[in-house]
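Quick illustration, no need to memorize.
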Amino acid sequence: MSTVPGGSVPRTSVPPGLIVAALCFGSLCASLMQSLVIPIQSELPALLGTTASNASWVVTATLLAGGVAMPVTGRLADIFGKKPVLVISAGVLVVGSLLCAVSDNLLPMLGGRVLQGLAMGFIPVAIALVREVTPPRLASTAIAAVSATLGVGGAIGLPLSALIAQNYDWHMLFWLSAVLAAIVAGLTLVVIPHVRDEHPASFDIVGALGLAVGLVAFLVGVSKGSSWGWGEPSTLGAIIGGAAVLALWARYEVRHHDPLVDLRVSARRPVLMTNLAALLIGFGMMAQAIVVPQLLEMPAATGYGLGQSILQAGLWMAPGGIVMMLFAPVSSRLLDRIGGRLTLAIGAVVLAGGYVVAAFLMHAPWQLMLASCVASAGVGIGYAAMPSLIMDNVPASEAASGVGVNSLMRSIGTTVSGAVMGAVLSGSTVVMADGYPPVPTEWAFRLCFILGAAAAIAGACIALLVPRRRAAALAATPRPEPVTPTPVG
């Protein structure tokens, strides 16, 4: 397994472990943006002087921007080099965080949250770069560690944000993210070596705009379906219109000489099956993130709710994020011994096992913590395998964009999961007392766990359809000669 085109490792005075740590820290900070405002979500209408419907875009805008950013940023990294794109992504996170930190109104807040979402593009580029800057013996562990930050950031972000929001002014959430982003930018400039890994090409602006329009429309329709109404013209128009734009985009991309996403490569069986598995595993992963906190925070008077505060719920879920990171070495050993195909399938099965535990053990916080840890172990294993499979089966000139598309598929899976879980929880409710809103039934929570397990098992089956070896044509793809990187500093 070569670490850079031609099989060389950059000559730099910075230890590989420190480089990987810097990439992990940057990816972790970028993923924190997903859960940063969840503890204050119910207070946002009053804080920003707007309606609850408008305030919900503060969360949605970041998710949408992140989904679009991942493949676009990946392609930019393939064309112009990965380190410059990482530095720019960190800078965008600084600007977005500062804009949010000084905002008291909806529009500037949305602008800042969009920029924070765009910084999510840091993650797939970091995953693609890590193989180029580490020796072969460390490559699998490094990929697993950076990949795990996608889940770890969300897991530790909830209790951290809740703790800050509970004890300080809410703007401190964004001042903290600005400080973290500045540290990421500094580490990226100083620690990450500049590998001459660019593959000059024209950037497909039309393709980027088409993907953005189609994705945003489709994901808005899916994510807002529960609140707008699934049969409403606005919901159907967004979903159908987005799908139509994406179909036209795909036709354009196939005919373009230098596409944003090479759909011919994406249609090859190893890449296609890995991306489909990513969608299903992303769906399965989100069940934990949505259902477990609600069940923990449900009033104990229901008979099945656990009556925890937001901070307590976050603390019960935090061990799952730690487990995810601790499983990085396990994931790397599996990758080295049995390959990405079986490792991905094992991760999906373990994830399903976590939901089986949750379906039967959901009557105490420690039980849900146990289920969350098992599910998180599965996510950690699966998330490590996916980028490895992608990078083994796409040309070196498309490594970052390939990982970006894979990350996008996970994001689509989580968005669809959020909509489905929301529909299940709102479709089976009970009124506990007059004058109080209805709450989801115990069966609704259990059904969500069952759906998460089913999606994960389906992902495992899809993963087994990935060929054992890369296609001969890709294996024979010529790679450029080794190049000497620009010295650090």
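The first helix runs from residue 16 to 32.
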